[in-house]
Amino acid sequence: MAKKIEKAKLKKAPNEQVEKSNAEQEQGKSRHNEMRDTIESIIIALVFAFVFRAYSAEAFVIPTGSMAPTLYGRHKELHCAECGVKYAVGASDELVEKTEYYVPDYKVTGAFCPNCRYYTNLQDAMPFTGDRIIVNKFPFDYGDPGRWDVIVFKYPEASQTNYIKRLVGLPGEEIQISRGDVYARKNEKEPFQILRKDNLDKQLTVQQLVYDDDYPPREILEYGWPERWSPMQQVKPVETRFEDLKQSAWELDRESRAYQFKGAAGKAGKLEWLRYQHIVPRQSEWALLQENPELFTQTMLSSPPQSRLISDYTAYNNYSGGSSSGLFTYDAAFWVGDLTLSFDVEIQSETGEFLVELMRGDRHYRVRFDVKTGQARLYFVEDFPNPEPVETELTTVETDLKGKGGYSIMFANVDQRLCLWVNGSAVDLGTATEYQPPVSPAPRDGDLAPAGVTGVGIDFTVSHLMLQRDIYYRADEYYQNQEYSGDRRHLWELLWDPAAWSRQYEDHRQQVRFDKMSDDEFFVLGDNSARSADSRLWGNSRQAEHRHAVPRSALVGKAFMIYWPHGIPFMNDGRGYSPSVGPLKRFFYHQTRPGEYPDDPYAKLSVPFYPNVSRMKRIR
């Protein structure tokens, strides 16, 4: 649950000692004047600092993970011991709420990798405090915050508490949450419209890792676990299902993670894709590998694991230990169809076509590059319920992907809109690639292999493949009225079967609506939807007309930047040193109550450390 944003404690800098020369000692009056000037300067500086803090900007500390992974609360950081991916896991549960006192029974002892689900022991890992941020209070004096801005405000149910969330609903809007997306309207006679992120930097900020092919779990792969990227083709033109190819135009270098397509001399026919399958190990499979590698390999041969639907799994929420230990193991049961695929491609032909595809339900969303002209055509092909595939063109644009050479590509299908980047720059598509969803929004078998690349009459090599997903906003509501009323674990187990998952979900799902707000009210959501106490879930002890709304008078400011994430310890194998004797101990070790320490000492700070520059950034 989200808690208040605690104001950062700012320490006054000690007064510098003024060196006294022999001449100054002889001139008492001059010395007195200089001291007076110094004191006046300090007072003026402090006044300016307080004015700046009161009216322009203020520093805050993020205590919880309600905005993760955009902003970290108290957390632990690690590199996966199996694949090497760096990630963070929440550790706010370790402390008594609204205090700094540690509860030993709630210690976070392990985490599960977002890339390969490998469990890493964190028993001896030191936690870090939340991100320290600067909040700009100046903009709201001259206008309202913008949609999708990250804002700080006074919690409506307790005005002395600061909250930080992402602003989603604007004054005068009625809000609806359905299937992970947010919709709004101002007139009840009009249909709800999906809320897209006009600023693509904000859209990219909230994408979460599904799989980074630069960090494969090599050990489990060596013992027979299937690769996630492999050659495939569509079974039938109108059947949204793919099957493995034993022979294809693809040459796979698993060591360097580079995949070459040799199709320049090939004949036109079925498209031969390199496609992603979401084949993720469970903890039982990791345990079998560690206990009996030979039996693991035999099991892979006799009963190979299957792909499943991509869900709203968030590694920040999944850990052992802590007061929420195990609660989120089967919680991530909701299918996410909004995906972003990025990679590098080396084009080795002067002519031909290069295709990228993202599946969602009955539709193949594609971008088709003509290498000779540099033009890119964005369109979708719809299978069911048509007797033949139906192609709908959205737009054709000029791009920098022209001729032989290396290019960086990113293709996204998010919020019912296609987006394209070439060499790090967004291609201007206007509103042409915004589309209406199909009649049936349910997942299909094609969503078990939702992303792919291929070519026609061309040679190329792709590498650095990374798949990400969009935020899934849960349609939860106050009084435990949740998006899914059935058995969450059962729904999770059906992710391997899209048709069964869809039936179960539809039988127990809800979409929620929040009444139209007044002209001075806003609707906010946390980026970590599964663990955010936001507009959806607030009580109403204040007896407001709209319990879900933040009044304009409660706005504090716009989150501007992370100025100090936390220090990174070095020396002593990267752990630094934590003095445990004398008066310094209380600064370096957790207390369970004033003056009392746990039997198993638990460090909270170590020295020396250096700045975590990589996370010092503008908040989008």
- Corresponding CATH architecture of the domain at 211-278 and 321-469: Sandwich
Enumerate how many helices there are, as a single number.
9
Shape: globular
Question: Can you give the mean pLDDT?
Answer: 91
| Rg on CA atoms, Å | 28 Å
| Class derived from helix and strand content | alpha+beta
CATH superfamily of the domain at 211-278 and 321-469: Exo-inulinase, domain 1
Helix content: 10-25%
CATH class division of the domain at 211-278 and 321-469 = Mainly Beta
Cross-sheet strand order for the largest sheet? 1-2-7-33-8-9-31-32
For the biggest sheet, the summary is: 8 strands, antiparallel
The name CATH uses for the topology of the domain at 211-278 and 321-469 is Jelly Rolls
Strand content: 25-35%
Strand segment count: 35
What are the segments in which pLDDT stays under 50 over at least 5 consecutive residues?
6-31
End-to-end span in angstroms? Answer: 22 Å
